[in-house]
Specification:
473 residues; alpha/beta
Length: 473
Amino acid sequence: MSTRSLPPEDEPTGDDGRRPVRTAALRAARHVLRAARSALRVLATELGTPTRPGTPLFDSARGRWVRRLPYVVAFGFAVSLLPSGANVLGNDYGVAGGLAGALATAQSVPLLLAVTRPLQAWWVMFAANVVCAVVLTGVDGVAGRPWPWPPTVIVGYLALMMALSVRERRRTLIAVWLTTGVTGVLFDAVAPERSQSSSVLMFVLSGVVLLLGAALRERGDAQRKLQEQETISEAERARRTLLEECTRIARELHDVVAHHMSVITVQADSAPYRISGIPQEAQEEFGAIATSARESLAEMRRLLGVLRSEETERQDGPGPERAPQPGIGQLAKLVEATVRAGVPVELVLPEEPVAPEPAVDLSAYRIVQEALANVVRHAPGAPTRVSVTTTGDGARLTVLVVNERPAPPMSAPLETSGTGHGLVGMRERVRLVDGTLDTGPLPGGGFRVAAQLPLSAPIPPTGPHPVKDSDAP
C-alpha cells in the first residue's frame, strides 16, 4: 500500500494546536533562502554597476599636477609590486617561476586600470588573489607565512581600496568589503596547517581604508556643492539687486515723466479758456492732446505697478511718491549728512549753473549718494572729494568721487568685503542715460568712481533703425 505526504494544512497537529516542528523548519529555511537570494542579487548589482566608468580620478581638479597624481601613484605601485610580488611568491612560498610571475602581474598591473575603472580593476585583482590563495594551498612554503593573502597582495589590495573609495558609492564599497571578509572566512575554514591567517588583517585594513577614502570623498562633494550653492546665491542676489534698482529707477522716472505729462494735460485742457479766439478745430486738437496725455500717464502707472515688488508696495504704498526727486542741487545736503557721519567730504560744483535733463540730474545724485554710502561702509573716516563739473564743450556732465586711504587710527569698517551690488545700480543708471562709468581702487589706496553723463538724455529713435554696415547684405 503506497503512502503520500499530506500538505502542511492537512498534517495533523499536536494537542496544543501547533504545526509539527518539521513544517516550521521548512518555512524558516524558505525565508532564509529567499533573503539570501535577495542579498546576492543586490550584491551582484552593486558589484557590477560602476560609477562613471572611463572617467579618470580627480578629473574635476583645477591643478594640472593634481589630475596627473593618480597615474603617477598607480604606476609607482604597479612597478614596485610586480617584481616584489613575483620574488615573494617564488622565493618565499616556493611557487614556480612562470606561475609566480603571472600571478604577480595579475595582482599589480590592474592598478593602472584603477585610475579610470576601479571596480573593473577590483574584479581582476580579486580573482587573481583568490587563485593565488588556492595555488598556495598546494605548496610547501606556506608553512609559517601569511595566508591566504601574502604581504604584497595586501599592499596592492589596499591601494586599490583607496581608488575604489574615491570613486564608487557607499553601497558598492560595503559590498566589496563584505565580499573580502566572507572570502577570508571561507579560506580560514580550509586553512593549510602551520600557516598564519591574514584574512582578519586584510578585512580590518581594507575597511579602514574604505572608510577614510569615503569620508574624504563625501567631504569634497559637500564642499563642492556648498561652493555651487554660494555661487548660485551670489548670482541670485546680484539679479535681485539689479531688479530692485530697475524698479526704483522706474518709480523715479514715473515721478519725473508724470510731472511733465500732467503739465501737458493741464495746458491742453486750459488752452481754450486761457487763449481767446481759438478756432473749433484747434480746441478739438487740444482736447485730443489732453486725452492722449491722460492715457499715456495711466498706461505708465499700470506699467509701474507691474514693476513694483511686493516689498516696495508694503513700504511705499500703492500710490506714486509725492516727494520731489533729488538732483545736483541737493548734493550739498547729502554731503552735510555724510560729514556728520564722520567722513570729511569736499564738494566742488560747476561755477556756471547747469540744467540737465531730469533723468541725468537724478542719476548724478544717485551715483554720488551710492559712492558716499560705500565710503561710510568700507572706509569710515577717509577724506573724500566729490566733484561735479561740465566738459569743455558743455555737452557732458562729469561726476567724480574719490576717497583716500583712511588715516590711522580709523574705526573698523562696517563691511569688510563688498558685494559690488551698489556698482550694479550705478552702471544701470549710467546705461539708462547713455553715459560711461569707470570704477576701481587707486594705486596708493582708496577708491575712485567716475561717471560721464550727457546733459541731455538721449531720445530713442521712433522710426526704422538705420542700416549699419554689419546689417547690409
